[in-house]
Amino acid sequence: MRQSVAATTPSDEKLVLETISTYLQALYKNDKGLFLDAFAETANVSHCSIADEKMTVWSLPDFIDVVDGLHKANGHVEEFHTDPDVAVTGPVASVHVPFLLKLGSQEVTGTDVFALARAGGKWKITSKLYSA
């Protein structure tokens, strides 16, 4: 059975990337309001460790607390993305992107995978999965 798909506008990819940019600003500024702008209220964030293949899953409020702890421990937290791969199908999207995360003077590389949904005309991150 074929499922109908809502139309995707040319600006959807741009709007998805703007949502990801809001997340990056939230991380850099440690700004709860920006996190709430970028993420759906029920979003979760999952980390899969490359070293031991263990996974940790946080609710959005818990992830915001983790970020706050990173800022307190490192002073500077900033993430950079390169060459995002964006796929949009109607009201859902995914973004797969390599990252460089600066924690004070330490640098960590990995991959972010975001799932997003468009509701009420606005794109929100519903989940973030990353490995480092």
What does this structure look like?
With 132 residues, the protein is α+β, with helices and mostly antiparallel strands. The protein has 3 helices and 7 strands, in the order ααββαβββββ. Strands 1, 2, 3, 4, 5, 6 and 7 form a 7-stranded mixed beta sheet that branches. The longest helix is centred in the N-terminal third of the chain and has 18 residues, at 12-29. The radius of gyration is 15 Å and the shape is globular. The N and C termini lie far apart (39 Å). 21% of the residues are buried.
Note the run of SSEs as H and E: HHEEHEEEEE
Number of helices: 3
Helix content: 25-40%
The end-to-end span amounts to: 39 Å
- The total count of strands amounts to 7
Mean pLDDT over the residues: 92
Structural class determined from secondary elements = alpha+beta
Radius of gyration, taken over Cα atoms and rounded to an integer in Å:
15 Å
Q: What characterizes the major β-sheet?
A: 7 strands, mixed
Low-confidence stretches: 1-5
Principal-axis shape: globular
Q: Assess the beta-strand content as a share of residues.
A: over 45%
